[in-house]
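2024-03-11 09:14:02 DEBUG pipeline.ingest accepted 1 chain
2024-03-11 09:14:02 DEBUG pipeline.ingest length=87
2024-03-11 09:14:03 DEBUG pipeline.predict start
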Amino acid sequence: MRTLSEVNPLESQSERSTRSQEQNALISRLAFSPSEAASVSGISRCGIYQAINKGQLRAKKHGARTLILKDDLLSFLNERPDFNTEE
């Protein structure tokens, strides 16, 4: 799955519209797989698993599936430090 920031200049308007609708549907979900959370957040899949293993990002298990609730992903992102431009 492509990240939200990827743009293909050769992609038609129809293809961009379809991709946008798919992304909006994904963002409106209540829970994400680690791969989906990576896609919507811009963080790598490995980074998502590292945050889960460090206890920084809360995840749930349903059978073999790992699920990250939307609110937990948003909290994790909001807890990240601000980018400091001053040195």
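2024-03-11 09:14:41 DEBUG pipeline.report Residues 28-79 form a domain with the Multidrug-efflux Transporter Regulator; Chain: A; Domain 2 fold (CATH 1.10.1660.10).
2024-03-11 09:14:41 DEBUG pipeline.predict end
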